[in-house]
Amino acid sequence: MKHAPRILIADDEPLLCAELQAELSALWPEACVAVAGDGIEALRMARELDPDIAFLDIRMPGLSGLEVARTFGSRTHVVFVTAYQEHALAAFDEGAIDYLLKPLDTARLARTVERLRARLGTPPPDLARLVQQLAPKKPPAWLQASVGSTIHFIDLNEVVYFGSELKYTRVVTDQMEAHIRTPLKDLAEQLEEAGFWQIHRGYVVAVKRIAAVNRDADGALWLTLRGHTDKLPVSQRFQHRFKGM
């Protein structure tokens, strides 16, 4: 490659973008690194820059990283950035050059840069099959949840949070607590499309119901909810969501 490698970062979390840009600049000083704050901006910048490499958040407003990757064909090496382990494994298996899990791990990024350096002289893989495989399903508008022997139809907009309980998922609204049989891990990705965030292996919360984020004496983060007395823990894996708060 005769020109300095052109790298595009696309993620809607400004702090993560800044961290990734700084790390890449340190690990690969000769690279030209540009940043887009969402999928639509990423698509526009990709047309202007024709990047050799793109670090794409799988979930972004406007256009997802998957939709942006689809436009690259086999012109750009793609590294997917995701909070979901299953996305990461699928990306690796299907030929994406690598993946990064949130929060960022510097050692992992360094290994990714080494692989990128080695592969820049080869054509990038076509990610069409991966994009189709990872495309998120639309969340349900209604949930059929049980309370004892009664089945309730719950509007998704009324749910405050979901909690994992053994073989079931607890559905908490302002009026009731009910259970569904679908495991929380199978719901989490779909629910992001409807304004929910996974904050812990065992909890997914409606973003509009988050009132505050508090740190206790041990350094752990807890969410206080609007109109609800329950407090929910935030695991280390998902604390990057609240770095700007």
From TrEMBL:
Protein name: Response regulator
GO molecular function: phosphorelay response regulator activity; transcription cis-regulatory region binding
Record organism: Duganella flavida
Chain ranges of the HTH LytTR-type domain: 143-245
Modified residues (4-aspartylphosphate): 57
PROSITE patterns documented for this protein: HTH_LYTTR, RESPONSE_REGULATORY
Classification via Pfam families: LytTR, Response_reg
Keyword DNA-binding attached: yes
Lineage: superkingdom: Bacteria
Keywords recorded for this protein, A-Z: DNA-binding, Phosphoprotein
Biological processes, Gene Ontology terms: regulation of DNA-templated transcription
InterPro entries: CheY-like_superfamily, LytTR_DNA-bd_dom, Sig_transdc_resp-reg_receiver, WalR-like
